[in-house]
Protein backbone atom coordinates (compact mmCIF):
# COMPACT_ATOMS: atom_id res chain seq x y z
CA UNK A 1 0.00 0.00 0.00
CA UNK A 2 1.38 3.41 -0.90
CA UNK A 3 0.70 6.61 0.91
CA UNK A 4 0.08 9.93 -0.84
CA UNK A 5 2.58 12.78 -0.70
CA UNK A 6 0.13 14.91 1.31
CA UNK A 7 -0.28 12.11 3.86
CA UNK A 8 3.50 11.74 4.14
CA UNK A 9 3.77 15.51 4.66
CA UNK A 10 1.12 15.43 7.40
CA UNK A 11 2.71 12.44 9.16
CA UNK A 12 6.12 14.11 8.95
CA UNK A 13 4.86 17.34 10.48
CA UNK A 14 3.03 15.53 13.26
CA UNK A 15 6.16 13.48 13.99
CA UNK A 16 8.38 16.60 13.91
CA UNK A 17 6.18 18.48 16.36
CA UNK A 18 5.86 15.41 18.58
CA UNK A 19 9.64 14.90 18.71
CA UNK A 20 10.09 18.49 19.94
CA UNK A 21 7.24 18.15 22.43
CA UNK A 22 8.60 14.82 23.71
CA UNK A 23 12.09 16.26 24.22
CA UNK A 24 10.82 19.38 25.99
CA UNK A 25 8.52 17.35 28.26
CA UNK A 26 11.36 14.94 29.07
CA UNK A 27 13.88 17.62 29.92
CA UNK A 28 11.28 19.55 31.92
CA UNK A 29 10.37 16.46 33.95
CA UNK A 30 14.06 15.80 34.68
CA UNK A 31 14.67 19.37 35.78
CA UNK A 32 11.64 19.42 38.11
CA UNK A 33 12.59 16.29 40.03
CA UNK A 34 10.24 13.59 41.27
CA UNK A 35 8.49 15.74 43.88
CA UNK A 36 6.83 18.26 41.58
CA UNK A 37 3.13 17.48 40.99
CA UNK A 38 3.37 18.34 37.30
CA UNK A 39 5.95 15.58 36.70
CA UNK A 40 3.21 12.92 36.51
CA UNK A 41 1.47 14.93 33.82
CA UNK A 42 4.75 15.32 31.93
CA UNK A 43 5.37 11.55 32.12
CA UNK A 44 1.87 10.93 30.78
CA UNK A 45 2.46 13.38 27.92
CA UNK A 46 5.80 11.71 27.13
CA UNK A 47 4.12 8.31 26.98
CA UNK A 48 1.40 9.68 24.72
CA UNK A 49 4.12 11.25 22.55
CA UNK A 50 5.90 7.89 22.27
CA UNK A 51 2.69 6.37 20.93
CA UNK A 52 2.12 9.19 18.44
CA UNK A 53 5.74 8.92 17.27
CA UNK A 54 5.41 5.17 16.91
CA UNK A 55 2.34 5.46 14.70
CA UNK A 56 3.60 8.35 12.54
CA UNK A 57 7.05 6.80 12.06
CA UNK A 58 5.41 3.47 11.23
CA UNK A 59 3.30 5.19 8.57
CA UNK A 60 6.40 6.91 7.14
CA UNK A 61 8.55 3.76 7.04
CA UNK A 62 6.28 0.75 6.51
CA UNK A 63 6.76 0.65 2.77
CA UNK A 64 10.50 0.17 3.33
CA UNK A 65 10.08 -2.89 5.55
CA UNK A 66 6.67 -3.58 7.01
CA UNK A 67 7.77 -6.22 9.53
CA UNK A 68 10.60 -4.04 10.89
CA UNK A 69 8.31 -1.01 11.00
CA UNK A 70 5.75 -3.02 12.96
CA UNK A 71 8.43 -4.24 15.38
CA UNK A 72 9.67 -0.65 15.81
CA UNK A 73 6.10 0.50 16.48
CA UNK A 74 5.75 -2.26 19.08
CA UNK A 75 8.94 -1.03 20.78
CA UNK A 76 7.52 2.49 20.94
CA UNK A 77 4.33 1.09 22.48
CA UNK A 78 6.40 -0.80 25.04
CA UNK A 79 8.36 2.38 25.73
CA UNK A 80 5.10 4.06 26.71
CA UNK A 81 3.99 1.31 29.10
CA UNK A 82 7.08 -0.47 30.44
CA UNK A 83 9.46 0.40 33.28
CA UNK A 84 12.53 -0.11 31.08
CA UNK A 85 11.29 2.44 28.57
CA UNK A 86 14.76 3.64 27.55
CA UNK A 87 15.76 0.22 26.23
CA UNK A 88 12.57 -0.15 24.21
CA UNK A 89 13.07 3.41 22.97
CA UNK A 90 16.60 2.57 21.80
CA UNK A 91 15.60 -0.58 19.93
CA UNK A 92 12.60 1.11 18.31
CA UNK A 93 14.74 4.07 17.35
CA UNK A 94 17.36 1.81 15.79
CA UNK A 95 14.77 -0.01 13.70
CA UNK A 96 13.07 3.18 12.54
CA UNK A 97 16.46 4.74 11.69
CA UNK A 98 17.42 1.70 9.64
CA UNK A 99 14.15 2.01 7.73
CA UNK A 100 14.63 5.76 7.25
CA UNK A 101 18.09 4.97 5.87
CA UNK A 102 16.92 2.07 3.70
CA UNK A 103 14.16 4.13 2.11
CA UNK A 104 16.18 7.34 1.93
CA UNK A 105 13.25 9.00 3.63
CA UNK A 106 15.59 11.57 5.19
CA UNK A 107 19.14 12.61 4.22
CA UNK A 108 21.57 9.69 4.51
CA UNK A 109 23.91 11.50 6.93
CA UNK A 110 21.05 12.27 9.30
CA UNK A 111 19.81 8.69 9.14
CA UNK A 112 23.32 7.39 9.90
CA UNK A 113 23.54 9.71 12.91
CA UNK A 114 20.31 8.15 14.15
CA UNK A 115 21.61 4.61 13.55
CA UNK A 116 24.88 5.31 15.39
CA UNK A 117 23.15 7.09 18.30
CA UNK A 118 20.65 4.23 18.59
CA UNK A 119 23.31 1.51 18.47
CA UNK A 120 25.20 3.30 21.24
CA UNK A 121 22.09 3.19 23.43
CA UNK A 122 21.14 -0.37 22.44
CA UNK A 123 24.58 -1.53 23.62
CA UNK A 124 25.02 0.61 26.74
CA UNK A 125 21.53 0.54 28.29
CA UNK A 126 21.37 -3.27 28.74
CA UNK A 127 24.90 -3.19 30.17
CA UNK A 128 23.67 -0.68 32.72
CA UNK A 129 20.67 -2.89 33.52
CA UNK A 130 23.00 -5.85 34.06
CA UNK A 131 25.16 -3.77 36.41
CA UNK A 132 28.23 -4.08 34.17
CA UNK A 133 28.24 -0.34 33.59
CA UNK A 134 27.08 1.73 36.51
CA UNK A 135 24.76 4.63 36.08
CA UNK A 136 24.23 7.44 38.53
CA UNK A 137 21.01 8.46 36.84
CA UNK A 138 20.39 11.67 34.97
CA UNK A 139 22.63 13.63 37.33
CA UNK A 140 25.66 11.89 35.84
CA UNK A 141 27.59 13.64 33.07
CA UNK A 142 28.32 10.19 31.58
CA UNK A 143 24.59 9.60 31.18
CA UNK A 144 24.17 12.89 29.34
CA UNK A 145 27.14 12.10 27.09
CA UNK A 146 25.57 8.77 26.11
CA UNK A 147 22.30 10.49 25.20
CA UNK A 148 23.77 13.57 23.43
CA UNK A 149 24.07 11.95 19.95
CA UNK A 150 20.41 10.88 20.19
CA UNK A 151 19.35 14.36 21.28
CA UNK A 152 21.24 15.89 18.34
CA UNK A 153 19.65 13.40 15.95
CA UNK A 154 16.12 13.87 17.23
CA UNK A 155 16.26 17.68 17.23
CA UNK A 156 17.71 17.70 13.69
CA UNK A 157 15.15 15.14 12.55
CA UNK A 158 12.29 17.06 14.12
CA UNK A 159 13.32 20.27 12.37
CA UNK A 160 13.77 18.41 9.08
CA UNK A 161 10.31 16.82 9.37
CA UNK A 162 8.67 20.14 10.26
CA UNK A 163 10.36 22.19 7.55
CA UNK A 164 11.01 19.84 4.62
CA UNK A 165 9.05 16.70 5.39
CA UNK A 166 10.30 13.42 3.97
CA UNK A 167 11.41 12.17 0.59
CA UNK A 168 8.65 10.16 -1.03
CA UNK A 169 10.82 8.75 -3.81
CA UNK A 170 10.51 5.02 -4.07
CA UNK A 171 13.75 3.11 -3.83
CA UNK A 172 16.29 2.01 -1.36
CA UNK A 173 19.87 2.68 -0.43
CA UNK A 174 20.90 -0.22 -2.64
CA UNK A 175 19.08 0.95 -5.80
CA UNK A 176 19.50 4.73 -5.77
CA UNK A 177 22.75 6.62 -6.32
CA UNK A 178 24.13 8.59 -3.39
CA UNK A 179 22.81 12.13 -3.07
Describe the model.
With 179 residues, the protein is mainly α. The protein has one domain. It has six helices and no strands. Helix 2 packs antiparallel against helix 3 (66-81) and helix 4 (85-102) packs antiparallel against helix 5. Mean pLDDT is 87; it is low at 171-179.
Helical content stands at over 70%
- What is the total domain count? 1
* Net shape: globular
**Number of beta strands:** 0
The arrangement of helices and strands along the chain is HHHHHH
Strand count, sense and barrel status of the largest sheet are: none
Mean pLDDT: 87
Q: Helix/strand/pairing class, anyone?
A: mainly alpha
Radius of gyration: 16 Å
Measured by DSSP, the beta-strand proportion falls in under 5%
How many helices in DSSP terms?
Answer: 6
Low-confidence stretches: 171-179
**Beginning-to-end CA distance, first to last residue:** 26 Å
List the helices and strands and how they pair.
Elements: H1 5-32, H2 38-61, H3 66-81, H4 85-102, H5 108-129, H6 141-163
Helix pairs in contact: 1-2, 1-6, 2-3, 2-4, 3-4, 4-5, 5-6
Task: Describe this protein with a few key phrases.
179 residues; mainly alpha; 73% helix; globular; disordered C terminus
Amino acid sequence: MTTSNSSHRAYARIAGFTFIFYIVAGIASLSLGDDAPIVNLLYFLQNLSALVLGVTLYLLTREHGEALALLALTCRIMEAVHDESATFFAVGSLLFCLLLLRGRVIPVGLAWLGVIASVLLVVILPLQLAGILTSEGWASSATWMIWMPMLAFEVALALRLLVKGVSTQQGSLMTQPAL
